[in-house]
Amino acid sequence: MRQIRAAYVARARQAHPDLVGWKGLDVMRSLNEAWAILKDASRKAAWDAANRPPGSAPATGSREDPKDNAFRPFWTGAMGPPPGRGSGSVVHFGIYEGWSLGEIARRDRGYLLWLRDKPEAEAFRQEIARMLDPNAPEPEDARRGRRR
């Protein structure tokens, strides 16, 4: 981390707008953005995951075991890390792996339409239906046991 910080400071001295004028403004913005990501371990891990080529092995120290990925399709998790504000069940397959159904609904409702008929989504079918049409009546078996 010391080497990265030293490189950041050295480059900032060369590109700072106070020293080189307006032409250094864009370079300094990019440099500051990169430094903000590199100095925060969680942001760096999220950036690494989002910018990893599909099908490539995760970075060293990752919790994923490469042996578990041997039979997964290359597009699994291709949408990167979830954007946040998760709601609902988390999907553990497909391009939105690791995203909650609510995050997927906000980003790509068409994917939920496609997903609801797939065998992999059997466990999520009712939840997907509620997200696609919140005004739809609940199934009879879901209403049993409720007091009126």
Characterise this structure.
- This protein has 148 residues and is an all-alpha fold.
- The protein has two domains: 49 residues, no CATH class; 69 residues, no CATH class.
- Helices cover 47% and strands 0% of the residues.
- The protein is built from eight helices and no strands.
- The longest helix has 15 residues.
- The chain is elongated and about 70 Å long.
- About 3% of the residues have low confidence.
Sum up the structure in keywords.
2 domains; mainly alpha; 47% helix; 8 helices
Task: Provide a brief overview of the structure.
The chain is mainly alpha-helical. The chain has 2 domains: 2-50, no CATH class; 71-139, no CATH class.
**SSE topology string:** HHHHHHHH
Number of domains: 2
Roughly what is the average pLDDT, rounded to an integer?
Answer: 76
Count of DSSP E strands? 0
Shape: elongated
**Rg (C-alpha, Å):** 22 Å
**Helix/strand structural class:** mainly alpha
Helix/strand layout:
Blueprint: H1 2-15, H2 17-20, H3 25-39, H4 41-50, H5 101-107, H6 109-115, H7 125-132, H8 140-143
